[in-house]
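Re: weekly structure request thread

Next one in the queue (482 aa):
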Amino acid sequence: ISMSQQVPITVAYGDGIGPEIMQASLRILTAAGARIAPETIEIGESVYKRGFSSGIEPAAYESLRRTKVFYKAPITTPQGGGFKSLNVTIRKTFGQYANVRPCSSLFPFVATKHPQMDVVIVRENEEDLYAGIEHRQTDEVYQCLKLISRPGTEKIVRYAFEYALRNGRKKVTCFTKDNIMKLTDGLFHRVFDEISREYPQIAAEHWIVDIGAAKLADTPDAFDVIVMPNLYGDILSDVAAQITGSVGLAGSANSGAAVSMFEAIRGSAPRRAGQNVANPSGLLLGGVMMMTHIGQGDVAERVHNAWLRTIEEGIHTYDIFEDGVSKQQVSTSQFADAVIARLGQKPQQLKPVAYASAAGPAMKSKFTPTKPAAKRTIGVDVFLHWRGSPNDLGEKVRELREGDLRLSMITNRGVKVWPEGAPETFCTDHWRLRFKSSEGTITHQQIAQLLGKVAGAGFDFIKTENLCEFDGEPGYSLGQGQ
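Done, posted below.
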């Protein structure tokens, strides 16, 4: 991008305080020399009320596809059923696989127990439990499928290392729970280790998510960039922002190969709308991330440093104003004026920021297509809705077989209860019957015939999961206690 070229961006002013904080943020970015050509779309409450259940009209997608950059203010989702999350719709529609949230301390100007904290959370944004595939299977048991893919993991892990490389970060940490979820989180950890070898200049480490989260809460300065699957990343990015003492100040980027979206993490605060009191900082910092994304790091640096200077001089909006720390309480527009007045200045106490001033090659989102493995099916798990004891069930189904496909184990909520289960194990009405072949490969036809026999014996089967080997490695977990 040449220094003079105007970059088209799509802007949505949103609802509630959205128009005020967007106006302030764009005014600051423009004053700092942002080379942008905004075009406006309407999203949110008014669009929901016109009958569009996702809060965005089809015509708005044309602008997003054309500009590939979306600067979005908060919106209000009307109460009641039938309204879908606009954010989730945008993220999924445009493959925004990376959610990036910087969380850094503004101590002593915003209270925090961790003055040195400067952490970036990189969260996988499309899969994991957020695939949203859920079923009620019995009277007592509900299921949510956790999906982790190799391509999805490769993209987010590589993004985290590229982010570290471009932003002068020294270390990338991975959080998973692969001591329990050995296949799904195990894949995430394994891919992390593989890709980390491509970036020898960046330190790499892995933590189990529970102790990692405890360490993040206690000693956040031990971390630099943290990459995580979707659920952990969602929870811990909020925790990290809160630990800085400034969850309301955080900006967020949702990045993808097609369209990237930049926003504040705060809501639309309709009770504060139209009063010129809201803090535009979160949306402004989302705009700073947008500037680096479109290759205008010089603008990002100028704005971010002027904002830091404004904060440390005690010029604060009502939400962070504190007697004895703050010097002047200002309105939304006055805060924007103060930041503009400090463009070209750097903070004196807080650490100045530095961004690359020109666009490099696009962030890598590539993944290596997975080579097909030699796959063979050697058994099947059949899930039942049934009430009774494990031994009762074992006696009733042990004679059900299809050729050499025979019952080897029964579990309840993952715990082996037959044969030789523990009498203390609590059981629900949700059972897994594991049938395995003693001779090796079985066919889909054998599974179908076995299911016919299970149904013929009067059992209510809910679903099946094939037991497969991939290149000789089991593609299924053992029962707990097996």
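The mean pLDDT is 93. The first strand starts at residue 7 and ends at 12.
Next request, please.
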